[in-house]
Write a structure and sequence with these properties.
Structural class: alpha/beta
Number of helices: 8
CATH class of the largest domain: Alpha Beta
CATH superfamily of the largest domain: Metallo-dependent phosphatases
Largest sheet: 7 strands, mixed
Strand order of the largest sheet: 8-7-6-19-20-21-16
CATH architecture of the largest domain: 4-Layer Sandwich
Oligomer: single chain
Strand content: 25-35%
Low-confidence stretches: 20-34
CATH topology of the largest domain: Purple Acid Phosphatase, chain A, domain 2
Helix content: 10-25%
Number of strands: 21
Distance between the termini: 63 Å
Length: 443
């Protein structure tokens, strides 16, 4: 019957099918656009924090003037602003590096932040990494509160609780809609976002809607350090002796000769800071809820980053690579030149082995090529999934909720995985200017 109708009126059937596809497409776009809207209040939060400037963003229910009063003390003697609206984005310029500023945005209660020090300053740095933190619920809150309590119990003298947050992607489940961002990110982390900059990576769940790039203001022109990227998809920032590169493993061209990795080569060639940390959502090495050995897993993104990005990072002297995506905690030995699947790992690619409490020594006092890096998957900041574990490059595996606190002081980096109860479940250190391990030569 259908074959007879098709034979009689093929054009009409094609037009009808095309109309259905077009209607579905319009409906889908309408749904995506609608879910990218949020009409409620959003408290002030920091964006693109740099030594001499910061962007303050917030949202109001009704149209209002976008005014920020600020200054180095509670008098708030300076004012910056924009026109009336509901989405507010005000840039404070002419700030001084390493200085605390107080501010009040849109009539909200005053808050304060500390600008980063001048790049290259030999000051202690504390970073807090949360991965796949977007699942609303008790797990998210427990991980947040446990890490904050640990940092409060382990202060750094008169320095802030921490210096910068690293959000490793999938910041709002399940589809990264604007209301989901409010529920999972701006709500639970609101008080912290007022005082600290959280530098985000683009995850696969963030990419399902249009929200991410609408609510973030990220450096395109090298405002926070590194060379200009020309895009918010990937960027760099500096904090004292630490240079951090944030890559887009989800939506950008991951080819070795593509724009992102070309930028990475140029940025690392220009970098003069002694510590280098890389952030990407998809882990080059994991054997948990995702498997980096499987070229079909996540559309080959883990394979692409391992094969194409890691050689550039290791040639640039990377010390630590942070990822999420797998909903667990995994930490490697000190590795170099491991760009294939797990069965290609040979002893020469393991610069040093170490379980909990490992201290990895690197001979150069500064940043040097192919002296080894540690790879951390920290994707359990709000949810857990099944994990098989067993990758030979991985030294520590934990199916626990948690986050990672990283302290850099002088020639030593200490990292700790802190679970949702506040216990340190894995720790390791990287020490520079110590040891006799020779740089690897990749073949």
């Amino acid at each position: 019957m259908l074959r007879t109708l098709w034979a009689r009126r093929p054009l009409r059937w094609l037009l009808a099918f095309a109309a259905l596809v077009a209607l579905w497409g319009v409906g889908r776009l309408t749904q995506v656009a609608w879910q990218s809207l949020y009409s409620g209040e959003r408290l002030p939060y920091l964006q693109r924090l740099a030594p001499t400037q910061v962007t303050i963003r917030w949202q109001t229910v009704e149209d209002s003037e976008g005014v920020v009063r600020y200054g180095p003390d509670s008098r708030l003697e300076f004012t910056a602003g924009e026109g009336r609206g509901r989405q507010h984005e005000v840039v404070l310029e002419g700030l001084h590096a390493g200085t605390r500023y107080f501010y009040a945005a849109g009539g909200h209660e005053p808050a304060s932040f500390v600008t980063p020090p001048t790049p290259g300053s030999d000051v202690p740095v504390r970073l807090w990494a949360i991965g796949d933190s977007g699942q609303v619920g008790e797990g998210l809150l427990a991980v947040r509160d446990a890490a904050v309590r640990w940092m409060e119990a382990n202060p750094r003298g008169d320095r802030p609780l921490f210096d910068a947050g690293l959000a490793l992607g999938d910041n709002a489940y399940r589809s990264g809609t604007n209301p989901q961002y409010q529920a999972a990110y701006f709500g639970p982390y609101g008080a912290l976002l007022r005082a600290f900059m959280f530098w985000p990576a683009y995850g696969n769940h963030d990419a399902r809607r249009w929200t991410y790039f609408r609510v973030m203001t990220l450096p395109e022109n090298g405002e926070a350090g590194g060379i200009p990227s020309g895009t918010e998809h990937w960027y760099a920032f500096d904090h004292g002796p630490v240079h951090v590169v944030v890559l887009d493993s989800e939506a950008s061209d991951r080819a070795s000769d593509g724009p992102m990795l070309q930028w990475l080569r140029e940025d690392l060639a220009a970098n003069r800071l002694p510590w280098l940390i890389a952030v990407m959502h998809h882990p080059p090495c994991t054997d948990a809820s995702h498997r980096s050995d499987d070229p079909g897993d996540s559309g080959g993104r883990m394979r692409d980053m391992r094969e194409n990005a890691l050689p550039i990072l290791e040639a640039g002297g990377v010390d630590l690579v942070l990822s999420g995506h797998s909903h667990s905690y995994e930490r490697s030995h000190l590795l170099d030149c491991h760009y294939g699947t797990s069965d290609t790992l040979v002893p020469g690619m393991v610069m040093a082995r170490g379980g909990d409490g490992a201290v990895f020594e690197k001979p150069s006092a500064g940043r040097a090529a192919h002296e080894g890096a540690v790879y951390v998957v920290a994707g359990s900041s709000s949810k857990l999934d099944s994990a098989e574990f067993g990758h030979p490059a991985i030294a520590a595996s934990q199916r626990r909720l948690g986050s990672v606190v990283i302290d850099v002081a002088g020639k030593r980096l200490d990292a700790r995985f802190i679970d949702s109860e506040g216990s340190v479940r894995d720790r390791f250190a990287i020490v520079k200017g110590s040891g006799t391990v020779r740089p690897n030569v990749c073949r």
